[in-house]
Structure formats: C-alpha cells, structure tokens
Amino acid sequence: MVRLSSWGVLILVVAPAFGQQAAPKKVNELLAGKLIYVAPMPGNLDEWISDFLRRWGKYKVTGNPEGADLVLKAVEPEKQTEWENRQGVPQPKGTGSRLPFPFPKRGKKEDAPVVSIDVLDWVTNQRIWRAEVINRKQKKDEAAPPAGPETTIFAEGMTADAIAMRVTRNLQAYVAELEKTDH
C-alpha cells in the first residue's frame, strides 16, 4: 500500500498551476505609446497637429518614423482625376493640395470625408484611431460624434489650426476614456 504524505499531495495539486501562465492583458497602444511620428499633411495640418500634441504632453513628437510607437497621418480619399484641355493638351485639373483651408461652404455634395486622420501602431501598421474630416457643419438635431476609435470632425469654414485642435482634442478625449477603463 502506497502512502502519500500531505506534502506529496500538495506538490501534485500545486505543480500544474506553475506551468500555466495567465494570458498577458493587451494594452491599447495609445496608452502604451510614448513616441509619435506625425507624417506630412496637406495645408500644413501636420505642423499644427504636432504643436497641439506637444502642448498636450502625452506623447513625444518626432520627425522620424523609425522607432516611433505611433504614426499619425492623413489619408485623402481617392478621387477620379478630372481633365481639362490647355492649349489642346489634356492635363489634370487643379494643382496643389485638394484641402483648401478654411473649407469653403459646400453645395449639395455628399458627406464623404475630405480627409481622414489615422493613428497607426508603427509595428503592426494597424489603425488604432481615426477622425474623418467632413466639409459640413454639424446639424442642430445631430448627436455629437463619440470620442471612440472612429470619430467625425465637421469642418466647414474651419482653418487648419482649428481642425488640428479638434483632431487633438478628440484623440485626447478617447485616450482619457481608455485610461478610465484600463484601471
């Protein structure tokens, strides 16, 4: 007959627990990141956003994407090229940035974003946060866009600095929301 001491039973019961590790909690990169690269944007929007990010102080802004934790960049929606004839030669219509600041009052256009501002995880290139800038005013009966991972900025008549301030404030509000739920 085999007798096990109480220590033998304890070792048998506790030993499997040492081999198992709890899965690490996935931390949102917006909370873990320290260094952010702001890519060049039309209308000097990048300079304004960089300035507001520095004032906020959550991230250190860098001019080099290598080694940054986060990348903030503007993504312009693809637009079909319009052509015009100049002295009998077809050439693309318009020159320079498609983002005039301030945005002019719109006619009867759709609510397609003029530009999207994305924050990406530099390592995985996955989008973490997006703000779609739309050239119209918010309607009176329309709810304010949430500060979530996807938000909207109504920018009709706004200058580049006002848009950059709104982008930064929305990002700040979302990060604050993440910090509340993380603790």
Structure description:
- The chain has 183 residues and is an alpha/beta fold.
- It has one domain (26-77, 100-182): Double Stranded RNA Binding Domain, CATH 3.30.160.
- 29% of the residues lie in helices and 22% in strands.
- The strands form two sheets. A six-stranded mixed sheet has the order 2-1-3-6-7-8, covered by helices on one side. It has a two-stranded antiparallel sheet with strand order 4-5.
- A hairpin with a 5-residue loop joins strand 6 and strand 7 (127-134).
- Helix 3 runs parallel beside helix 4 (160-182).
- The longest helix is centred in the last third of the chain and has 23 residues, at 160-182.
- The protein is globular, with a radius of gyration of 25 Å.
Summary, kept brief:
The chain is 29% helix and 22% strand. It is α/β, with parallel strands linked by helices. It has a single domain (26-77, 100-182), classed as Double Stranded RNA Binding Domain (2-Layer Sandwich), CATH 3.30.160.
List keywords for this structure.
Double Stranded RNA Binding Domain; 183 residues; 4 helices; two-stranded antiparallel ribbon; 8 strands; 6-stranded mixed β-sheet; alpha/beta
CATH fold label = Double Stranded RNA Binding Domain
Rg result: 25 Å
Overall shape: it is globular
Tell me the major beta sheet: 6 strands, mixed
* Uncertain stretches of 5 or more adjacent residues: 8-16
Strand content: 15-25%
Helix content: 25-40%
Q: How many domains, in number, for the residues?
A: 1
Amino- and carboxy-terminal Cα gap:
54 Å
Spatial ordering of strands, largest sheet: 2-1-3-6-7-8
Annotated CATH architecture: 2-Layer Sandwich
Q: Find the count of extended strands (DSSP E, 2+ residues).
A: 8
Give the rounded overall mean pLDDT: 79
| Highest CATH level, the class | Alpha Beta
Number of helices: 4
Structural class by SSE content = alpha/beta
Order of helices and strands: HHEHEEEEEEEH
